[in-house]
Write a structure and sequence with these properties.
Number of strands: 12
Largest sheet: 7 strands, parallel
Structural class: alpha/beta
Oligomer: single chain
CATH architecture of the largest domain: 3-Layer(aba) Sandwich
Number of helices: 8
Distance between the termini: 24 Å
CATH superfamily of the largest domain: SPOUT methyltransferase, trefoil knot domain
């Protein structure tokens, strides 16, 4: 293939010997890019399968392809990072989803904080999922990041509160949801050098980013009580959406995922 063109087909469109493209993907392939029978493209299912495929049939509403070579987790980072971010005003969270996906974020949680200015309404998740799908194809990934339902800050802290003892014990099996949880807080230090050298090596992480007004004193106290690791993002104050992307880049870079 001269160009790495990625198209999306849901897992149910994959069989052992055929992949079917329909809807917008079929239209873009045929009417915009003018592909023909015999051309090869990459098709991903959003769940980790990427298939280099050859077009063998172009119909009015669908294109059918023959998979030539399949790969698993193409373009995916070793570290599964969830970005829990208070939703900024306007469409700035769209930018977080798009660029976060390109960087390598594996899941997003709209975080509801005491100082949150936006509580996402119905329909937002569908829009954000579409943006994540488009970004997945653009940056040559094979898994579409999960867009979770909004979660209250306190509830997310409770999900992470048993982390330190469970992880420090080095026990086998999944005793917790996350291997590490970072709480972005102005003036905190950088725990990443110590984190990446842990044994066993952490794979599943969460970083929490507050709203424009920052986390409240009560939320900071909850984070301390939950045993979260405080995480500084540098000497300058960042806008909320910038902070989320900077945090993701720092974490994934520390684990060698951006080099």
């Amino acid at each position: 293939m001269s160009r790495r063109e990625f198209f999306y087909a849901p897992p149910e469109s994959f069989t052992a010997d055929t992949i079917t493209l329909a809807g917008d993907e079929h239209t873009h392939l045929v009417r915009v890019l003018h592909h023909q029978i015999g051309d090869r493209i990459m098709v991903v299912d959003g769940a980790g399968i990427a298939a280099e495929s050859e077009i063998f049939e172009i119909g009015k509403t669908v294109t059918r392809l023959r998979p030539i070579k399949k790969s698993r987790r193409l373009g995916e980072p070793f570290v599964h990072l969830t970005l829990a971010q208070a939703v900024p005003k306007g469409n700035r969270f769209d930018w977080v989803i798009e660029k976060g996906t390109e960087i390598g974020v594996s899941a997003f949680i709209p975080l509801l904080c005491e100082r949150s200015e936006v509580n996402p309404g119905p329909g937002k998740n569908e829009r954000w999922h579409r943006l994540a799908l488009a970004a997945m194809k653009q940056c040559c990934r094979s898994i579409c990041p999960a867009i979770n339902e909004p979660v209250m800050f306190g509830a997310l802290c409770r999900r992470a509160s048993t982390l330190p003892a469970a992880y420090a014990a080095g026990q086998s099996g999944r005793l917790r949801e996350f291997d590490f949880v970072l709480f972005a807080h102005e003036g905190a230090g950088d725990p990443l050098p110590q984190l990446v050298n842990r044994a066993p090596k952490p794979r599943i992480g969460l970083v929490m980013i507050g709203p424009e007004g920052g986390f409240s004193d009560n939320e900071i106290q909850l984070a301390r009580e939950a045993g979260l690791t405080f995480f500084g993002l540098g000497p300058r104050r960042l806008r909320a959406e910038t902070a989320g992307l900077v945090a993701a880049m720092k974490i994934l870079s520390a684990f060698g995922e951006l080099s």
